[in-house]
Amino acid sequence: MLKSCSYCRKIHERNFICPEKEKALKEHRGKKQYKSKYEMFEETNVDGFRSTKAWQLKRAEIRQRDRNLCQICSRELYQTIKRFTYDNLSVHHCEPLNEAYEKRLDNDNLICVCEYHHRLCDNGTIPQEEVKMIIEEQEKKENGN
Fold it and tell me: What pTM did the predictor assign?
């Protein structure tokens, strides 16, 4: 029986162990298991931010700027399956909230991506510098430069 793999987005036999899954598990095992009180407070603050009106408005603004399309898919980068992906979109912080909380609402730190490319951005497969370049292109288009 075949199944769809959420790690590489290909179809495998049910008993096949995907190398991408093994890679993700190794990365997960290498992470610190316990968090300091400061890290737990920061995470709570970050989680609370996502429910604020300011974030909801900014997220809508970025989705509109990016035409409600995944900006990685529209450039056909990183194993894009469908060029115009408008399903399962989210707004990604290029510099993560827990590292650059002060940039949480900066247009030049936000990009609209699909679920698959969001995961690749988060795990570093898509370099932060490349994401920044795409964001810069979008900002220039928006501002007419």
Answer: 0.66
Separation between Cα atoms, residue 90 and residue 130, nearest integer Å: 18
How far apart CA 21 and CA 6 sit, in angstroms, is: 8
List the pLDDT tens digit at each of the 145 positions of the chain.
Answer: 777 777 787 887 877 878 887 777 766 665 555 554 444 444 556 778 888 899 999 999 999 999 999 999 999 887 877 788 778 899 999 999 888 888 999 999 999 999 999 999 999 999 999 999 999 999 988 887 6
Q: Give phi and psi for 111, each to the nearest 5.
A: -150, 145
Q: Which residue has the tokens 């790690």?
A: 7
What Rg do the C-alpha atoms of the chain give, in angstroms?
A: 17
Tell me the domain boundaries of the chain. 53-145
Query: CA 71, CA 124: separation in Å to the nearest integer?
Result: 16
At 129, the amino acid letter reads E
Query: How far apart (Å, rounded) are the C-alpha atoms in residues 63 and 73?
Result: 14
Task: Please give the Cα distance from 134 to 128 (Å, whole number).
Answer: 10
Rounded to an integer, what distance in angstroms lies between the CA atom of residue 134 and that of residue 72?
8
Give the number of residues written for the chain.
Answer: 145
